[in-house]
Write a structure and sequence with these properties.
Number of helices: 6
Distance between the termini: 13 Å
Number of domains: 1
Shape: globular
Strand order of the largest sheet: 4-5-7-8
Structural class: alpha+beta
Strand content: 15-25%
Largest sheet: 4 strands, mixed
């Protein structure tokens, strides 16, 4: 799972073609950003916003209290559901305890796990989010679902959250067309989905289509679609994560259940 994530187009470069235009040989989110802002960046072929080489920290084990977690099968596969309000302070705390430097973007990943606005199915399912620590450091979390075809499979949630992080690293960017948004935050997929009009909002984000398979659920401002030259081995997916005022994503981890509580192994 970790190897698949670090070898995915989120970190590795591929060549991207949009509408017949080569937007560069680059990382997935950078290609998405360059395509969205092509009128400006087309004259600057060396301009990129790229993620650095991932540094893998040791596996972290978190024990989910019974009141903050449950086991369910919202999409047909049994997995862990944990409260985002329980998890988020722990993730923020691990930035310091793991010695992650201020200039880095911490990404926490779990697997076979969804977050929930409460502790169960009624608040499920959050595939990822991004947020800002009390010290002002952006961080992200995503869940790597290993079941093909399920919500938040592979690196789909990570692609979504990194796209949002680049647009809005401190979760306060409201410089967007007001008609596109219900929450006035610069997102990459939700505005069009919330309005239910992926094809009728020419100035609003629209879902990127990567063919035949790849990361998913970001949107290009001009409503056009990506087509990728290289076959990817990472499946597309849709995910929407929402805190009352913040956003979240997931890196890697393992989960298992124990009597009376749930054990959740999380690797930032």
């Amino acid at each position: 799972m970790v190897q698949n994530t670090t070898a995915s187009p989120i970190f590795k470069k591929l060549t991207y073609i949009q509408g017949g235009t080569n937007v560069g040989s680059t990382q997935y989110v950078d290609a998405f950003q360059r395509a969205s802002l092509w009128g400006t960046v087309s004259a600057h072929p060396t301009y990129h916003v790229l993620l650095g080489k991932p540094v893998i920290k040791p596996l972290q084990s978190l024990r989910v209290p019974a009141a903050d977690g449950s086991v369910g099968n919202p999409f047909g596969t049994k997995l862990l559901i944990a409260s985002i309000n329980w998890f988020d302070p722990l993730a923020a705390g691990m930035i310091s305890s793991l010695g992650i430097p201020a200039g880095a973007l911490p990404i926490f990943v779990t697997t076979q796990t969804y977050l929930s606005n409460n502790s169960g199915l009624s608040g499920c399912c959050i595939g990822g989010y991004h947020n800002v620590s009390g010290a002002g450091q952006p961080y992200a979390m995503f869940t790597y679902i290993q079941t093909p075809g399920q919500f938040s499979q592979d690196v789909s949630a990570l692609s979504h959250e990194i796209g949002e992080y680049v647009n809005d690293p401190f979760t306060n960017n409201i410089n967007v067309p007001a008609s596109c948004f219900t929450n006035l935050i610069y997102e990459v997929g939700e505005p069009a989905r919330e309005r239910g009009e992926l094809r009728r909002l020419p100035v609003c984000p629209q879902r990127v289509h990567v063919s035949p398979s790849g990361p998913g659920d970001t949107g290009v401002l001009r409503g056009t679609r990506f087509h990728q030259r290289a076959r990817l081995e990472h499946l597309p997916g849709n995910q929407s994560s929402r805190l009352p005022e913040r956003r979240v994503t997931t890196p890697r981890g393992q989960s298992s259940t124990a009597a009376g509580s749930t054990t959740w192994n999380s690797v930032p």
